[in-house]
Amino acid sequence: MKRDFNEWLSKFKRSISGYGYYIDFEKVFENVESIKIELNILNSLIGSKNIESDFEKILTEYPKTLKCIPILLAVRTSEIFATDADGEYLYDFSKMNQSIEQYKVFMRKTGLFDLLQNHLINNLVDYVLGVETGLDSNGRKNRGGHQMEDLVEKHLVDSGVKEYYKEMTVSEIQAKWGVDLSAISNTGKSEKRFDFVVKTKSMIYGIETNFYTGGGSKLNETARSYKMLSQEADTIDGFTFVWFTDGYVGWKSARHNLEETFDVMEHIYSIDDMENGIMKKIFK
User: Fold this and answer.
1) Mind listing the pLDDT tens digit for each residue in 219-261?
2) CB burial string 244-264: b at 16+ within 10 A, e below
3) Residue 248: inside a domain, yes or no?
4) Residue 15 resides in a domain
5) Of 137, 167, 186, which residue is a domain's last?
6) What is the pLDDT of residues 192-214, one digit of tens each?
């Protein structure tokens, strides 16, 4: 029986975000704790009348405090490149690769001396806690993707699938089962990685999963790409492409491209489909 696209789309979820999706405070606290001693040493610079000489004394006596500097600028890497009319410099904050004088130039020109000296903050531990919280919010996209993968895996397990693999490439599939997937790998020129691969007695299923909380051109590109992938997979004996997707807020703005894919792709499913036992029907 042909499914109705509008009815199918109407059952999409607005969100699958749990409470831990927004901020991973455990990770935030761990990051701050790892440099807490050094941050407290640098706290002595707050309100300093002779901040440059005090900074020099701290670096001379406590060189490990250097590693705290990048996070004060909301930068995670230990190396920072900076350039202006005075020259180009690569600063290493894991080990001193510049003179202390040059690190003072960095602190002055980035505004960190001004931040500390003019008492714009009261405590570097609290300040970095805020910075880490802000940086962690950028990880929501990755956590969102993992939430859908986790949900699909839960349904795979609950449906009784005995053999499945996570993040498996086309070349790994070909090597393990001897199936020719050149039709979807551009004759070996591209390396596609599936979120999951399910193996049954008669079929290999390559699975992609995603959940969209917002719109954008990426959704249209994904729909077109997976439509083509499905059509290529249909030419391969013993292999089937399956797409689990959801997210009403995201897909409502790209519904036309999704509908085009829905009309030609047999194995495209939503969370509602999973909740109603679709995996037991297809992974026999």
Assistant:
1) 999 999 999 999 999 999 999 999 999 999 999 989 999 999 9
2) bbbbbebbeebbebbeebbee
3) yes
4) no
5) 137
6) 999 999 999 999 999 999 999 88
